[in-house]
Task: inverse folding
């Protein structure tokens, strides 16, 4: 019998790995992949709570998280394409037109 | 050790390993493929938690649709030709690693704090993971958010088309 805390700790580890990817990598695509990783670790938390407390609400919320992730991926990748067309790079350090 | 525990540890090891590979590989396409491996590990874990619907959706929508979009864009941009993005070992990374480790320890401390530990009710868990049960909640309690979701997806499609167009004017 796997306790609930095991699932939560695994989810925390995966979330931290994802956030580490977001703050340390400079490639915009890999930053997006890390964000997907973080979204998925939160989904694991929701499903674990849903199963352990016997309530389907958590799984409905996972459904919404997946929808938001799909929308985010579509818009984010469109932004990456637009940036690449303009600056020929996906290096986040060189994308600083909004920096004052 | 029961089968459930063995499966949990296999999927957990696979998930953490593939997550680490996602954030450390240099080539984005290899990162994307390891992310797909990670999604499969998570889908297996959802199955051990009796969430069949979510497990299937995870593979169909995430590993199928969303990752195809990522791989497609990576190949479209042809990043292999671009000069190497230097991400060397800098003090920023050390600080980021230290902060992340701190947050992780805090989270684990909060999780293992002595509180009531619920135990899984197999029969009930099997019943709520079905398409029927999830659909029931989705179309009654969450009907309005469900409808708003369609608006969100429409806005995302229009936004993506506008943003990726050649001339923004």
Result:
């Amino acid at each position: 019998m796997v306790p609930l805390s095991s699932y939560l700790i695994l989810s925390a580890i995966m979330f931290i790995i994802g956030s580490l990817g977001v703050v340390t990598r400079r490639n915009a695509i890999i930053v997006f992949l890390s964000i997907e990783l973080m979204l998925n670790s939160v989904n694991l938390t929701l499903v674990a709570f849903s199963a352990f407390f016997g309530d389907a609400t958590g799984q409905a919320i996972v459904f919404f998280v997946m929808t938001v992730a799909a929308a985010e991926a579509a818009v984010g990748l469109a932004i990456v394409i637009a940036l690449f067309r303009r600056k020929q790079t996906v290096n986040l350090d060189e994308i600083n037109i909004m920096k004052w | 050790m029961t089968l459930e525990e063995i499966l949990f540890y296999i999927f957990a090891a696979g998930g953490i390993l593939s997550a680490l590979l996602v954030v450390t590989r240099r080539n984005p396409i290899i990162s994307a493929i390891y992310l797909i491996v990670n999604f499969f590990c998570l889908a297996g874990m959802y199955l051990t938690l009796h969430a069949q619907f979510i497990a299937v959706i995870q593979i169909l929508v995430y590993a199928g649709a969303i990752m195809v979009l990522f791989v497609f864009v990576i190949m479209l941009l042809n990043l292999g030709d671009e000069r190497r993005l230097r991400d060397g070992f800098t003090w920023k990374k050390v600080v980021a690693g230290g902060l992340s480790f701190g947050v992780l320890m805090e989270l684990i401390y909060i999780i293992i704090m002595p509180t009531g530990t619920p135990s899984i009710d197999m029969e009930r868990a099997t019943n709520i993971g079905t398409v029927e049960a999830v659909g029931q909640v989705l179309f009654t309690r969450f009907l309005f958010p469900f409808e708003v979701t369609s608006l969100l997806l429409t806005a995302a499609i229009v936004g993506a088309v506008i943003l990726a167009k050649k001339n923004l004017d």
In short: Chain A has one domain: 4-87. Chain A touches chain B through 72 residues (CB under 8 Å). The radius of gyration of chain A is 17 Å. DSSP finds three helices and no strands in chain A.
